[in-house]
Amino acid sequence: EARTAAICAAFARAMASPSPGGALRVLVTSRNPEKLDAVRAAVEEYHRAGPSSDRNTDGPEVEIVGYPSDSGIPRGQPWGLQHTYEGALTRMVAVSRPASAEALGAATPGSHQYVISVENGVFAMLGHASTDAFDVACVVVERTADGVRASTFSQARPYPLEEVQRRTRAGASGHEIGSFCAEWYAARPRLLARREQIRSATTAALAMLEPPEPPAVSAPECSAEKAARPLKRQRSGRV
User: Fold this and answer.
1) For residue 33, which phi and psi values (nearest 5 degrees)?
2) Burial classification of residue 156, based on how many CB atoms lie within 10 Å of its CB (0-12 exposed, 13-18 middle, 19 or more buried)
3) Which of 132, 133, 137 is nearest to 38 (CA)?
4) 64 has a pLDDT exceeding 50
5) How far are the Cα atoms of 8, 11, 176, 216, 237 from residue 210, in angstroms, in the given order?
6) Closest-CA residue to 52 (of 112, 11, 7)
């Protein structure tokens, strides 16, 4: 009970302590416009609706602060779920270093309510005749009020692995590969967009930080008719 109360108190502090300007400030470990837009949409959506009574129906003003952070991944492309998670976590740890925090103003108490790190990576599924690859987003969210973190992965979408490998063998740069993938997805608008991957995963990670709702307790049946039933049966037995 004490631990649950502490979690609830930290959650309440995070929700009730906006920055001095009144906005809910979120630090994102990237300046990629697509990531910033997706995170903004997720945070606004999360604070507008949901089961918690602490939510504001209209939602607070959300201020997104983008800061480029290195994932430490060679060639910038994570392979596998573990590698993708490590990339997202490394970005978050990098902005928490004293030099980065000072540059961001993150050392100021209450400066940011959340730090959110996003990393997209590729994982492969081996088959007898072919290897299928999928792109997935990993999101790590830290609530700065108590330092608690939550992480999750998005829904996956197909990744053109065979063509990417062919172009890589031909000497294509990482930038050229990125441009090709962007065009490949643009030609397939029915596939899940990266913005939606990041938005949905960020919303899920935010929800994981929230204390669980108390179990619903139904009111006990306490009618005069129910109270009289045992007595009726007892009397009928005597007769």
Assistant:
1) -55, -35
2) middle
3) 137
4) yes
5) 8, 7, 41, 17, 55
6) 11
- Neighbour count for residue 46 (Cβ, 10 Å): 22
Are 11 and 17 a contacting pair, CB within 8 Å? no
- Count the helix, strand and coil residues of the chain and give each as a percent rounded to the nearest 5: 45, 20, 35
Based on its alpha-carbon atoms, the radius of gyration of the chain, rounded to whole angstroms, reads 25
pLDDT higher than 80, residue 231: no
Yes or no: say if 79 and 122 are a contact pair by the CB < 8 Å rule.
yes
Residue among 134, 133, 137, 135 at smallest CA distance from 153: 137
To 10 degrees, the CA torsion angle through 164, 166, 171, 177? -10
DSSP of 165-189, one letter per residue?
HHHHHTT--HHHHHHHHHHHHHT-T
Q: What's the CA gap between 165 and 7, in Å, rounded?
A: 47
Closest CA to 140 of 9, 11, 39, 8: 39
Angle at 206 between CA 202 and CA 210, to 5 degrees: 165
- Using the structure block, give the residue that is written with the tokens 């997104």: 64
Helix (H) or strand (E) holding 17: none
- Residue 145 backbone phi and psi in degrees, to 5: -60, -35
Q: What's the chain's average pLDDT? A: 79
Band (198; pLDDT cuts 50, 70, 90): very high
Q: Structure tokens of 113?
A: 């309510």
Overall average pLDDT of the 95-109 stretch: 54
